[in-house]
Amino acid sequence: MIFLKAFLVGGLLCVVAQLLMDLTSYRVTPAHILVGFVAGGAVLSALGLYQPLVNFAGAGATVPLTGFGHLLAQGAIDGVKHKGLLGAFTGGVAAAAAGITAAVVFGYLAALFFRPKG
Amino acid sequence: MGIAAKKIGQQTYFFHQPPVIVSTAAIVGPKEGQGPLGHTFDKVVEDPYYKEKSWEKAEQRMLEEAMQKALQKANLAPQNVDFLLAGDLLNQIIAADFTARVLGIPFLGLYGACATMYEGMALAAMLIDGGFAEYVLLGASSHFSTAERQYRYPTEQGVQRPMSAQWTVTGAGAMLLARRGAGPVVTHATVGRVVDLGSADPNDMGAAMAPAAADTIVRHLEDTGRVPGDYDLFLSGDLGAYGLVLAGKLVEQKGYHIAGHFNDCGLLIYHHRRQDTHAGGSGCACSAVVTCGYLMQELAAGRLRRVLGIGTGALFSKCSSLQGETIPGIAHAVAIEAR
Asked: Cα–Cα distance between B291 and B43 in angstroms, integer?
């Protein structure tokens, strides 16, 4: 059941992004949508609205870009709890460290072993 | 207050002793080889890297090889040629620069975006008819993967392409123009004005270039006093599916009916549905390889007698479009006749 929920919620988030790409002016670039999703996820998370979605759909809510925003927001909130105001600056990236490092490491490995076909 | 002896009307030049296209060569990548014109090219390179380390190097190699082939066909060595005119879409036109480094022919680098081949033909014909050259070698190149990162996003990023987007042709075309010889001749050139009606979408260049193409076609007809029926074909460079319709309508509004014999290199070069190229081909190589391959063969076979080729270019950079600038278009027309 969790797989179905993850598929539906993750898929719906992607449908929203696809519609934004297809139905908006060319002035809305993929980069705008990417940043918008991360920021949107962070705002929803800070308002306490994103965790229920994660509880419901698991990876369907954490894997899309909004999940990254959620991670940043929760990390910043935790950081403040443990380190005071400085934690607002360190907590977000610390919480997302695994994802960021994985992107660098696997990106490097892929670049080392493969060549883009063009 | 002199009147230029070889100029007619506002923007058109008439060549008293029309320069001859003595040889051409066209080299393309795999996707172009699989297209409907695959059999018209001198060589189809199956590897987009062409055994080089980067796509930029592959593009340069194609341009150099096309130039060498055009020289070989005419039995000429680089030292016999007076000028090399070439350009491409890379920063500082390095494909052309590095080709000139190898050939050692006195070099004038060109940037006319995708209209570069036709800008080169117009200038080469002027150099020859003006008495400054016996032989001029000219050419242009582009490559899908170098153009994507030059103008939009690196292909590795996998950004989706809207249906108005065109597919940059991988390849290079080269042409040798001479004062004397056998082959089709260049009788007129109409140098285009830059026209900008405010289109700004870098994924819809057909709309940006159509007004310039229409302006140049109408200007050519008015300057020469010719009618559309004087030409077997009006062949634009890379207006694509939507740009061609737009340009046709704009020409129609000026009272010239060219719709029946107006086509586009970008529409001829791919099987659009099957090859997923969206609005059609584009890039310097689009008009270059279709002109140097298909068009020359049609003229040689007698299926076409007189053609107006219209090289079309979108004058922008990634930086200018990200900064919100609109995209001006340019179009140069060259009249080619079978002899």
From this structure: 15
Of the candidates B236, B244, B231, the one whose C-alpha atom is nearest the C-alpha of residue B304 is B231
Q: Is residue B1 part of a domain?
A: no
Are residue B143 and residue B241 in the same domain, yes or no?
A: no
pTM of the model: 0.94
Q: Give the range of the structural domain holding residue B15, as residue numbers without chain letter.
A: 7-178
Q: For residue B242, give the nearest of B221, B276, B266 by alpha carbon.
A: B266
pLDDT, tens only, A3-41: 999 999 999 999 999 999 999 998 898 899 999 999 999
Cα separation values, A50 from A1, A40, A60, B75, Å:
20, 10, 12, 73
Residue A118 belongs to a domain: no
- B interface toward A at CB cutoff 8 Å? 48-49, 55, 144-145, 153, 155-156, 159-160, 162, 200-204
**For chains A and B, what is the number of CB pairs under 8 angstroms?**
22
Q: What is the ipTM of this complex?
A: 0.85
| Residue in A21, A22, A118 closest to B48 by CB | A118
Distance CA A61, CA A57 (A): 6
CATH (domain of B308): 3.40.47.40
